């Protein structure tokens, strides 16, 4: 399964990099739980040294692994709460769920958002 995550923070455009670095530090633990991550994004703009990105992609095999990912995301947000109001949008197969405010710091709210994406289409 693939899930993509975008971080939105009008007062701090470094949040995607910060979250990716935080998750990178947690990567051995996440990999042990079967969750793999990578950056997705645009090609470098003229004058940029490297590629910019605004999407983090997570790949995993089962919904059991969502708990570890949810805790990692919520812990990052709690540790960076002074950076301003962030929102997270998670997406899978064109379906999106956005978390704002305190929900971003709540592992259960993050897990529920991820689980929502894994549910079969209600149609």
Structure in words:
The chain is 36% helix and 24% strand. It has helices at residues 15-32, 66-79, 107-118, and strands at 2-8, 36-40, 55-59, 87-92, 95-100. It has a 5-stranded antiparallel beta sheet, covered by helices on one side. A hairpin with a 2-residue loop joins β4 and β5. The longest helix has 18 residues, at 15-32. The radius of gyration is 14 Å and the shape is globular. The model has no long low-confidence stretch (mean pLDDT 77).
Q: Which class do the helix and strand fractions yield?
A: alpha+beta
Task: Kindly report the spatial arrangement of strands forming the biggest sheet.
Answer: 2-3-1-4-5
Overall morphology: globular
Helical content band: 25-40%
**End-to-end distance, in Å?**
20 Å
Uncertain regions spanning at least 5 consecutive residues: none
Mean pLDDT: 77
Short description:
This protein is α+β, with helices and mostly antiparallel strands and 123 residues long.
List keywords for this structure.
single chain, 123 residues, 3 helices, globular
Itemize the secondary structure elements and their pairings.
Layout (H helix, E strand, L loop, with lengths): L1 E7 L6 H18 L3 E5 L14 E5 L6 H14 L7 E6 L2 E6 L6 H12 L5
Antiparallel strand pairs: 1-3, 1-4, 2-3, 4-5
Helix pairs in contact: 1-2, 2-3
